[in-house]
Each structure stands twice: as C-alpha cells, then as structure tokens.
Amino acid sequence: MRILHVFRSPVGGLFRHVRDLAKGQHALGHDIGLFCDSTTGGPLAKATLATCEPFCTAGVTTEAISRLPSPSDLPAIAKAKAVARSGDFDIIHGHGAKGGLIARLAGKQIGIPSVYTPHGGSLHYRWKSPTGAAFLATEALLARIGAGFVFVCDFEKKAFADKIGLAGKPYVVAHNGLWAEEFVPARARPDATDLLFVGEVRHLKGIDLLLNALAGLPGVSLTIVGDGPELADFQALSASLGLDSRVRFAGRLAIAEALTLGRMMIVPSRNESFPYVVLEAAAAAVPLIATRVGGIPEVLPPEMLCEPEQASIASAIRLALADRAEAARKAQTLATAMRTAYSVETMTQTITDFYATLRR
Known about the structure:
With 360 residues, this protein is an alpha/beta fold. It has 13 helices and 13 strands.
C-alpha cells in the first residue's frame, strides 16, 4: 500500500507514534508519506523529520498548519489533497484533531479511505464549555466522513465512543509500542535530581500540581525536560515557591538523554491518552509515579498511580522516595513484563491489517 500520515506537530509523543508506525510499515514493504506542520519544533523537528526520509519513500511534505482552527486550514487541506492525489495513496491516516480534520476532508474529496487516531486531542474537552462543544461537534461531523478509527488505548476508544460516537464505523485498538533496543536500563548521572518530568510544558500536564507538591517536600529536587507555550509561567511559579535551587529546566532533549537526568519519573498530568513517556521510562527501568488518567492504568500497576491532585502527588512521591530500593525493584519487574506486551512490530501489524479491511 501507499500510506499518507497527516498530523500537525512534528514533536512529542504523537510524532513519535507516527514516526515509529511509518518505519514499521516501510519494513513491511509499504510506501509511506508524511504531511505535517512546517512552523513547529524549530531545528530539532527539522532534523528529526530528515531522519524519516529513508523510510518515507513516498515523501515528506510540510505546510503551515495552525494549532487552533484558522483560515489557514483551507490551504493546508488543499495541499494535503494535492499530495494525496499526486502520490496515488491508498490510505490517508490523520493523527490528532487537526491531522484528523485535514486527512478526512482531503480523503473524502479525492475518494480514498481515511482513518483517524485522536491521540487525546479533542477528547480533553467537555460539551459543557463553548470551546469544548465546538470541538466535539466538529469531531461528530467528521466521524461520519472517515472510513474508521485507530485508537492507541482502550480508554481513548471508550472516551471517543461516549463523547462523540463511532458513527457505526469500524475501529481497532493498537497500543503504542517500543523497539527492542529501547529496553535498556537508564543510568542516572551523578548530578541527577530525585525526580524527572519529561513532556510538553503545558497546564494539561499538571506541572503546577507537581511544583506545588514539591514545595511541601523539603530537599526533593526535580528536572523538567521539555518546552511549550507556558514555560515562562512555570519558571515564574517555581521561583515564587522558592524552588529555584531544587528545580532545573533543561529544555527539550532526546528521551535517552533526559532519562539520565532524574532517578524517578513523575507524570502529574490532568489528562492523557496513552503517553509514550510512560512506556519509555518503564522500558528503561526508571521508577515511575503517574496520575490515574487516560490509558496510563493500562500499563502501570496500581501502586505506581496517584490522583491528579497536589496532595495525592506529594504523598506518592514521599512514599516512593522513602524506599528507593523497592521502587527500583518494581521498575525492573515492569520493564521485563513489557518486552512482549508493547512492541512496535505488534502495533504496526495491527494497524496495517486494519487498513487492509477498509480497502476490500
């Protein structure tokens, strides 16, 4: 098959998913194309996109794509449609809310099947808010256009069905997976902090909950790896809480390097779909604490989970740090169990087999 993946931002977990899927599908003998935003991520995104070219034999195309609805969506849809038509693609797969919009409208206009993976996206909104109602109503309309859905976890499928509905379309659940070489224990640097956060620096990720929890845990240190539109706000919050000597902001780094900067991963998110950072930390046998949101409970045992609340996060950190040896043992047990359960090969085959059913 010739498969075109459409998404907005060439950074973060969504891009990681697309990149792995494209590489895995290329290994199965398919021709893969990518279509994404040209304005996000800076030099690192461009460099990472360049590494995709060897397995994206149907080309990598970038175009300005705004994060929120905008008049610029029209030229982006037109460009995607032109790419899909000229590339003679069999399937167009949209990832994230904006990628899903572009892919499904382009696919409908040129008459090829489109599938959609939300990756959280609009599912983070509620019908009760005006903004949420607008996003979810758009999703409900688009659900009638595409040929089917691919979900990265059971939670995402249930949330989509409950909030939006599947419109009678087929779907498949394919958990994110890792490559075999990623199951290597991370070695913390001598100057590693007690805790590590890796991800987009956004309110949704619960960084304020984490910083406020840290204020009540004397002597506990934290490294925050990532970037985002609210970085300055969280730096200011850290300073106002008197945490400057215990919190360092390391910027955006490759995950292998990031995992050496802290001895325990903390994921304090308010909402998630199925975050790669949890899989990556678990595969590297890094002790973990994460909030009980999204698909995270599908991966982590109950003793590694807490609520997305300041007090619950603080309590979980305190307990885990009180017995670091036990936390390390549990992390190693989890890494061993994940080797067969979460692989890129399984994820890729499941999704690609689903495409084939839509083309019959």
